[in-house]
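Troubleshooting log. The previous structure file for this entry was overwritten by mistake, so regenerating from the original sequence record. Sequence copied from the archived sheet and checked twice against the printout by T.R.
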Amino acid sequence: MARSGTVLGHYLVAVQRFVIQLDLPEDAARFGDMAESALDGDGTALVAFLHAARRCLSAYDAPEDVWEWHERALAIVIDLLADGAMVDRIDADLLQGLRLGYGSAGGVPTAC
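Regenerated output below.
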């Protein structure tokens, strides 16, 4: 679970960096809020982040490396949901990996 969380943490940072590069401050703030909620353990925020990211990546023609992070994250979340996990709260082991991955990828949560 921790390994999956690490991938998810890197994904959050990859998407946030992409959005910041687009110079869209309102979107950057929205993705930041969703990431912070996910880092606080909110599973629905992580699902919302995935959904919003897919739309943003499509609309702004994201590079392949960001799409690869998205596909990896999507596969993890689908597997977790299919197994009945993470609907509301993120599992403690997954959350630990998520926070570790986010930090190691250079993400700086403002409230966590």
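Residues 2-21 form the longest helix (20 residues). Archived copy saved in two places this time.
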